[in-house]
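Researcher: We're teaching a course module on how sequence relates to structure. For the next exercise, students receive a sequence and then see the predicted structure as tokens, so they can try to spot secondary structure elements on their own. Here is the exercise chain.
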Amino acid sequence: MKTMDVRQDNSSRFDEKLPMIAFRSASPQFLQIRLYICVGEEPSVMVWEPTMTPLALLFILSFLVCVDLRILTPVLPSISDSLGSSPGTVGLAMTAYSITYGLGQLFYGPLSDRSSRIAVVRAASVGFSVFTILSALAATTGQFIGARLLAGAFAGAVIPLTLVYIGDTIAYERRHIVLGRFSIITAFAMAFSASIGGTVAHFISWRFMLVGYGLLALIPIGLMWRIKIPPPAAGPDVSAGFSEILRDRRAQFVYIAVFLEGFLLWGGMTYLGAFATRQYGFDQFIVGLLIALFGIGIMVGGFLMDRISRRFSENGLAALGGLLMGASYLSLIPKWPFIIFAISLFLMGLGYVSLHTTLQVRGTEISPAARGKAFSLFTFTLFTGIAAGSALFGRLVDAGRYETMFVIAGIGLIVIGLATTLSPSRSAS
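Model: And here is the predicted structure for the students to work with:
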């Protein structure tokens, strides 16, 4: 495989010295395939050269990070037994991971504005892989928490900068489609990572799971190091500070909307498993399968995004997403049969793709000259909303007031979707 040259137009440069036949896939942003017919001492030799583009490698690394965010959930009891600690104490590793993951956004975004998205991601990914492996080698709970804290700090570069890279290289009019494909990756990870991790840990061990996972991540990382980064060119000023970005009215709306989306949607999602257990008496295995329907809904929405975006305007997608998610939450208030709960989770996933993708598209267009810094605020705000929603909704759940939570989340998400249609988009700004 030859060295890849990162260009804004993602164009391919073939070796003009070789007679060749070149085939490209239908999606050249992701995979380019070159087939050479060589002429020389062995005229029949054919060289098969698949070339993964930078965006394809970023998608793979994003998938691995999404898996890492959730892979430990089913194996916390095994880890606590092995380390001689309680599940609650070991669970602090997940808290530490999330904190450094969220705070890292405020560092990696500005850094990538001044250097290179690819360079920052590949350097951080090495740290992510190393500390994932070291997590498996931990002999004490403190070592495990420390390794996960540092793994989260490095993992925080991958997904946000992938989205920023999409903003850099994909035309605004096509970002819904590409981000829809990205949502398929994240949804698959959300839907199946816990079950896969639990299976491997059950039949082998949680240490083997983490070592194997860390080593697996080295494959796309190694391929990414083959990418040739051109020297930084003189470009627009990226000195805009966070305060300057926040003074922009369009940015203010996007950040408020994504904060509330995280607060309402993900804050409520935290307790849907507990609700299903109380309402229907399901065990953890069945609850896990039901919650996976949310991820499957996201996957289906991602596959259909191309068609959906042709039928609906950008504002229409936002309104549709808010209505689907809001109605799904409100449908949980009556004591319907569990099939309604399952359908609601699936529709919630469909709605999430429509609304969140719209907010992501607009988020990638805030302050293009300092896109990394601006989008780091987007991601940080989302995580802040998730943390706040989980904490405050937890008080309602402890009081047994699930219905109140569903009303707040349902009406709030509908309002966000409708309000997004009134906010200025790129075309209006």
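Model: If you want an answer key for the exercise: Residues 54-226 form a domain with the Growth Hormone; Chain: A; fold (CATH 1.20.1250.20). Confidence is low (pLDDT under 50) at residues 1-29, 31-39, 42-50, 233-237.
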